UniProtKB/TrEMBL annotation:
<dbReference type="InterPro" id="IPR036322">
    <property type="entry name" value="WD40_repeat_dom_sf"/>
</dbReference>
<dbReference type="InterPro" id="IPR020472">
    <property type="entry name" value="WD40_PAC1"/>
</dbReference>
<feature type="repeat" description="WD">
    <location>
        <begin position="309"/>
        <end position="341"/>
    </location>
</feature>
<dbReference type="Pfam" id="PF00400">
    <property type="entry name" value="WD40"/>
</dbReference>
<feature type="repeat" description="WD">
    <location>
        <begin position="427"/>
        <end position="468"/>
    </location>
</feature>
<dbReference type="InterPro" id="IPR001680">
    <property type="entry name" value="WD40_rpt"/>
</dbReference>
<feature type="coiled-coil region">
    <location>
        <begin position="138"/>
        <end position="235"/>
    </location>
</feature>
<feature type="signal peptide">
    <location>
        <begin position="1"/>
        <end position="24"/>
    </location>
</feature>
<dbReference type="InterPro" id="IPR019775">
    <property type="entry name" value="WD40_repeat_CS"/>
</dbReference>
<keyword id="KW-0853">WD repeat</keyword>
<keyword id="KW-0732">Signal</keyword>
<dbReference type="InterPro" id="IPR015943">
    <property type="entry name" value="WD40/YVTN_repeat-like_dom_sf"/>
</dbReference>
<feature type="repeat" description="WD">
    <location>
        <begin position="385"/>
        <end position="426"/>
    </location>
</feature>
<feature type="repeat" description="WD">
    <location>
        <begin position="469"/>
        <end position="510"/>
    </location>
</feature>
<keyword id="KW-0677">Repeat</keyword>
<feature type="repeat" description="WD">
    <location>
        <begin position="344"/>
        <end position="385"/>
    </location>
</feature>
<protein>
    <submittedName>
        <fullName>WD domain G-beta repeat</fullName>
    </submittedName>
</protein>
Length: 543
């Protein structure tokens, strides 16, 4: 049939917009079955009409024109990529008919029984309503249901017969078992009573003999024990007196020949070098404690702020510093070359602690915002951990396993794999927030100091608590083990520096000073360094 120009223009279809229609199988309309096919050439060739299902609705399609009276309300055009998409819009809008053109235009109407005549270039789609089940399907379902009910009744009858048979058999077997059990029980009870009677008699005879021997031995042991106690008490008194003499420390203010206003201090684990984070000027200085002369020094840099924590590499050739404004820097003591791990830029949190790994290949920093950061020294690559929910106040690598341990104000001690940043373990601290942790030189013990003024010593492998020392009357600020692992130094807000014997948990030495913020033992045991508020660095030597 021919196009009517006026009717085509009402639908937005130009008479000049004739499309070339390819030959396709009769009744096939790929644009309706495949939403990614825009062309309708196969829909408007061959049979030129058919039925498709779109969103559960029956769509009859054919190539036609849409002739309407003035009362027909056509909506569109809408841009749709396929006839399927146009039909979906029709179904969603509950239309009665839609038309689709090859140029992706879709129109539809909700009017009932619009006048139509066929056209070869526009795909018309009538919405026939939802799909319904056929009579054949209903009959098949009814027959299936009838057969199913018969099978169910048959199975039910067979099952009931089997249950009755099994029940009778079970009752017979139960009665036989009860009889056998009763006979066995009576026989065993008789044997048991006979054995109990024999054992009671024998036990009474043995108890009487033991009482007699015990009374005789107790008299002899009591006297020997009293003698041993006296000897041990005398030896203990002598040992304590000797230890107190050997571990008496005295402050030596003039040891370095100058007054040092400091915030942080650390000794090299293997040589006679000491790193000091100074306040005025804000710099890091490394001292040779053999000559008691400074080897090198570096200012923290513009905007970095004061040094909050310092650490020396295991060989003493590098010094690491974390600052108040969030900088993390390292210097080579020999060449003075600088390596920057973190700049004090943007929203960087205060660095409270820094640490070197036992092999010197990694460095770590604990921040006030709860982050625990790890860097590879050779590549400057950063590894980020889960961190804490509170400020990280303490940080140290195990000298044996290499694990990184952090202590936080969130009352947890966490163990990290420094290679991956993954958390391996955790201790929920029973005291207040953590301010200090320290490993013993052999890596077997971990000491922690908290806001509740106590010091706890943990088994570093099992995480069991070994000791609880009521160390101070104020929060603990720092801890340090002596090189031989036999002594532990603690400093507190209460203004005391105390040195503990870990052999029997008593105070070897106690010194009154202002609030102390840091403490460290030299590896050779000659020096003890403490940082005291308003007084700066104090060096202690044995008297």
């Amino acid at each position: 049939m021919h196009f009517k120009p006026l009717l085509l223009s009402l639908l937005g279809v130009s008479p000049l917009g004739m499309i070339s229609i390819a030959q396709a199988a009769a009744g096939n309309c790929q644009s309706l079955s495949d939403g990614s096919t825009p062309a309708i050439g196969d829909c408007c060739s061959g049979q030129k009409s058919g039925t498709a299902s779109v969103d559960g609705h029956v769509i009859e399609y054919s190539c036609r024109n849409f002739k309407r009276s003035a009362s027909i309300n056509i909506k569109g055009p809408y841009a749709e990529g396929s006839a399927q998409a146009c039909a979906k819009r029709c179904v969603f809008r509950r239309c009665t008919m839609a038309v689709y053109k090859d140029n992706n235009e879709c129109r539809y109407t909700n009017d009932a029984n619009p006048e139509m005549e066929y056209d070869d270039t526009v795909l018309a789609m009538e919405n026939k309503g939802k799909d319904d089940m056929t009579d054949e399907v209903r009959k098949a379902l009814a027959k299936c249901k009838e057969e199913c009910e018969k099978d169910k009744e048959k199975l039910k009858k067979e099952c009931q017969e089997q249950k009755t048979e099994m029940g009778d058999k079970c009752l017979r077997e139960k009665e036989e078992l009860r009889r056998q059990c009763t006979e066995n029980e009576e026989r065993q009870n008789k044997q048991c009573e006979d054995q109990k009677s024999d054992m009671r008699n024998k036990c009474q005879e043995e108890k009487n003999e033991l009482r007699r021997q015990c009374a005789e031995d107790a008299k002899e042991e009591s006297k020997a024990c009293e003698d041993r106690v006296k000897v041990i008490q005398e030896q203990l008194t002598q040992c304590r007196d000797k230890n107190l003499e050997d571990t008496r420390w005295v402050s030596n203010p003039g040891l370095l020949g100058t007054e040092v206003k400091a915030r942080a201090v650390a000794f090299s684990p293997k040589n006679e070098r000491m790193a000091v984070g100074e306040l005025s000027p804000q710099r890091v200085v490394v001292w040779d404690m053999k000559t008691r002369q400074p080897l090198a020094g570096w200012e923290t840099g513009a905007g970095a702020g004061m040094p909050m924590s310092v650490a020396l590499s295991p060989d003493g050739t590098k010094v690491l510093c974390g600052t108040y404004e969030g900088a993390v820097k390292m210097w080579d003591v020999t060449t003075s070359s600088e390596q920057i791990f973190q700049e004090p830029k943007g929203r960087v949190s205060r660095v409270n602690r820094v640490a070197f790994s036992p092999d010197g290949r990694q460095v770590a920093a604990g921040l006030a915002d709860g982050k625990v950061l790890i860097w590879d020294v050779s590549t400057n690559t950063q590894i980020t951990t889960q961190g804490h929910s509170g400020a990280v106040q303490a940080l140290e690598f195990s000298p044996t396993s290499g694990k990184l341990v952090s202590g936080s104000k969130d009352k947890t001690i966490r163990f990290w794999d420094p290679r991956t940043g993954r958390k391996d373990n955790e201790i929920s601290h029973p005291g207040g927030g953590l301010n200090a942790i320290a490993f013993s030189p052999d890596g077997k013990s971990l000491a922690s100091g908290s806001d509740d003024s106590s010091v706890r010593v943990w088994n570093a492998e099992t995480l069991a608590q070994r000791r609880l020392l009521p160390a101070h009357t104020g929060p603990i600020n720092d801890l340090a083990f002596s090189a031989d692992g036999r002594q532990l130094a603690s400093v507190s807000d209460d203004g005391t520096l105390r040195i503990w014997s870990l052999a029997d948990d008593y105070v070897l030495s106690s010194h009154q000073q202002r609030k102390a913020e840091a403490v460290a033992f030299s590896p050779d045991g000659k020096y003890l360094a403490s940082v005291v508020a308003l007084e700066g660095l104090l060096l202690w030597t044995r008297s």
